[in-house]
Amino acid sequence: MITVKDVRKSYDKSSEIIKGVSFHVEKGMIYGLLGPNGAGKTTLMQIIATLSKPSSGTVTICGLSPETDLLEIHKKIGFLTTEIKLDPLSSPNKLFDFFAELYDIPSGEVENLKKTSFERFGIEPFADKKIIELSTGMKQKVSIAISLIHNPPVIIFDEPTNGLDILTSKQVTDYLLELRENGHAIILSTHIFSVAEQLCDEIGILVDGNIVASGSVSELIELTGTDSFEKAFFDLYVKNHKE
Ligand SMILES: Nc1ncnc2c1ncn2[C@@H]1O[C@H](COP(=O)(O)OP(=O)(O)OP(=O)(O)O)[C@@H](O)[C@H]1O
Ligand SMILES: [Mg+2]
Question: How many whole angstroms from 89 Cα to the centroid of ligand 1?
């Protein structure tokens, strides 16, 4: 579903931010990117979501290349980042309708889709409030509802539980597990070890623009000869980070 091949990215000649990253994400799989601040997770996810071009290397989504099939790819991707800003004066209702139109959802289906989505995330009581009046968690839930309006097979979420309380965070992680169950291919980044441990089938540890190790939580623990995922992460970071 998602193939990333030797992707590199530089913003200027002196420094390379992504230094040759490759991996593959199958249907029904959650791939996690874990790495310290500035490791390049957001940059890499923006490239995979075709919002930024790699300096070299390729990304294919469902066998399609952004060079030739950009519009088709956009229909297949749901992208969510903490940097997405919802129009502060709009409302969940208006935004949902706007994006439904953008993604050509047949008008007869929009109300039902909205009802299911808003019910799932408890958005209904806030549906007509201004975005500016909503809490961080509610804004995040509205962002998720909107970014998945077109039921995309490929989902790319940059820190999906960032800033959420434990209850809202659980709603989001349960939803991601359900999407995996339904055969979506998911890439997420997170700083929260328990989220990575609970959700990810495979994790790529990104340090200074390189995936320095990848595998399941137990494989990474075994690889490093440690006894917890946190220790495995620190071990890989210390061994691979250059000052
Ligand atoms: N538009 C840009 N121009 C120049 N440098 C950039 C740009 N965007 C990001 N960078 C640099 O790329 C590096 C990686 O940033 P990125 O945001 O991808 O890291 P991250 O792993 O997502 O970090 P965090 O965990 O803090 O979100 C940083 O050194 C950052 O300063
Ligand atoms: Mg980031």
Answer: 29
Task: Look at residue 83 in the predicted model and tell me its pLDDT.
Answer: 66
Domains and CATH numbers, the chain: 2-82+153-240 (3.40.50.300)
Residue 167 neighbours by CB under 8 Å, 6+ apart: none
Closest CA to ligand 1's atom 29: 38
Asked if residue 43 has its Cβ within 6 Å of ligand 1, the reply is yes
In this prediction, residues 156-178 reach a mean pLDDT of: 92
| Chain segment 74-116, per-residue pLDDT in tens | 999 999 987 678 899 999 999 999 999 999 999 999 999 999 9
Given this model, what pLDDT does residue 243 score? 72
Out of 14, 41, 83, 190, give the residue to mutate to test ligand 1, the one with the largest number of ligand atoms within 8 Å of its CB.
41
